[in-house]
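Predict structure. Chain length: 830.
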Amino acid sequence: MSTLTIVGAREGNLRDVTLAIPKNKITVFAGVSGSGKSTLLVDVLATECQRLHLEALSMQGIPKPAVERVRGASPAIAILQDGANRNPRSTVGTATDVYTALRMVFEKLGEYPCPHCGEMLCAADCVEETERVGDDFRVYQFCPACGERMDKVTRTEFSFNTREGACPACEGMGEALSVDRAAAVDESLSLEDGAVAFWQAKYREYQIGVFRAASRHFGLPDPARVPVGAFDALQKALLYEGAEAPALKEALPHVAPPRKVADGRFEGVVPLLMRRLGERGPDAKGVRPYLVRAACPVCGGERLGPRGRGATVAGTQLPQLANQSLRELAAWVRRVSTELGGPRRAMVKDYLLDMETKLARIGAVGLDYLTLDRATVTLSGGELQRLRLSAVLDSELSGVVYILDEPTAGLHPRDTEGLVDILRNLRDLGNTVLVIEHDLDVMRAADHLVDLGPGAGACGGRVVAEGSLADLAAAPDSATGRFLARPLAPKAAPRTPRCAPIEIRNATRFNLDHLDADIPAGCLVTVTGPSGSGKSTLVFDVLAQGDAAGPENAVSGCGHLDRIVAVEQTPIARMKRSNVATYADVWAPIRAAFAAAPEARSRGLSAKAFSFNTPGGRCETCEGMGTVTSNLLFFKDVQAPCPTCRGRRFHDEVLEATLDGRSIADVLGVVGGRGAGRLRLPPQDRPHARPAGRRGTRLPGTGATAHHALGRRGPAPEAGTRAPRGRPGAHALPAGRAHARPAPAGRGAFPRAAGPPGGRRQHGRGGGARPPGAVRERLGDRPRPRGRRCRRAPRVRGNPRRPCRARHRRHGRLPAPDAREVGAHGAESP
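Prediction complete.
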């Protein structure tokens, strides 16, 4: 059969799609984001191919997708844009399993001294013995020189992610937090003028008093009004390390440290910050700006304990190999494979072959400059994409359907050429290659093109054109064709910067080679270069941190910015419970509106009953997810509709309570931007669904998970925001690691029920609406008195008690008291 035919696909937004895809060809699927490309290829074709494959093996477990049939199906391999592992312990070695094979080689052939006689021994020459100790099994070996028994150094002790193998000081991280003395103390100032940055107001006076008392106790000069840079060595030791400083004990052995604070028991800048670090954590306010990561003083950044660090194979330690480039590691593997012979080679030949194969695949995509200990969180988007592709794109299989979801994401055009060559090689081996792509170079290299649309969401789901690039350009309903038919107009004149540039000096982070750069402010600036050249490092790891002084990675010129916001390639949500409604902050007012409706009140249902995240009104079989997971062991887990609630998430009693004729499950299926205005929500809660429509994107149902619905539509501002101090109204730079979404525009108090115009809103079920400005004016910024307990007002109509300001902000009913914040879509909250 020469075609792979999909008949009657109705999954998601697909509208009874029937399509014949040529086999043994490269077919590119184009169309606007959300038009149904991933649904057609991943949710329908890949799932059905996998289901048919399992049925041929007399196995079941994957539900049939909403498609009549798929003719000419073959085993399918889908390479998707799954989020990278954001665990700081994840490295290139652990992500590719090369480090795992290397640990096995060191367990079998490791050489280290005998703890009894000191003679060097090889694990391959030792007689082993296994003994059961309680519920565990211990492996021992006997020294061939002295015959004494010892614990064997196993693969566990070569792992920095286990308690047995990790360095006890840094717990396998290779780095330890220490105090950045230059950031904590400005030595050009005196203590009275604010030399110590975190000594503020009365606390500064207190610390200066204790420091002067300590100076008198040790007989040191009075530090009053003297810049810290003019202190002698003992004064600096006292300031930084406190009264217990080793330098003081060595220089003044006859003077015992003071025992009372009044006598000068000064804690010191460094011990004080380290104590706060232990009490509050590294991200606590007042601690993080003065910390810096440095190599662990115990293991020197090698992550492993002493036994794992000390073993060698062919004269090389495991941490040394982890620090070498993959190109150098491949040469070491070939050398060991050549030099080994006899029984030793038989013990590790499978592991060496596995490493050779994987390293060759990684080198084929141009990533052999990486090291095994490089953390995956530090890789660029293009490097992550190529690392993911390297696992399967150098395969010798034939007759397979390869499905790739935007493989060029983050790749430089130079790297795209290599990717196209790999796709052609897969095709020439007799495989069918299906690519979801927007890149013109990949589209030009395709044997066949399919364009879905014409719009996104409910406006898409149809095949609007197929054939060649000329066929797409001639199709009137194809958004891709209209773009191809329109010539690109270059920018006539660049914008003139409106203020001083942002200066970066001596940037040395990761692979940056003492780089200096001036970034024009108030302009759209593009940073380009091949994948892995340092673009993400420069922008996100250096520039995004704001103004920073020092000999390296110095940044200046961010003081006039209102805030720094990051839009990266990381998924907008990490939890499977996150969906469009919760991400857009519209779910809380929708729940409150349902709880205030007469049908819900007559049943005694509160807003909690309409939550799928907490027990009460949700279906407990699926825990409010609407689906249950089937574990297929070696295959990807599949989701099936919940047999109890039939995918509607809630109990029948909750579903019977309607608002404007819709149940809470119906609202979760409302299309963002199109159906949000049909619910009678307050005006301040309606605009959340509008900005996406203005950008040309029709959101899927509000109940669609954020990872599934928005992860394929591009990145969004992450959680958390760094806001440099500056004058209001200054232009914001759209770069930086933001870590909290800005407050949505127009957010204010949410009335539970309608009331007379201008009437006062009462806390409870009754009362009228009040404009957000009035609530802000009434609440102000007064701090909550200490010792007063937040009492929840009784749920009775007309209760005059006012709501607790802190609780309502915490639950999203009131805006933060800050004056003006730029929203995620450019709008400003009042």
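Summary: Residues 342-364 form the longest helix (23 residues).
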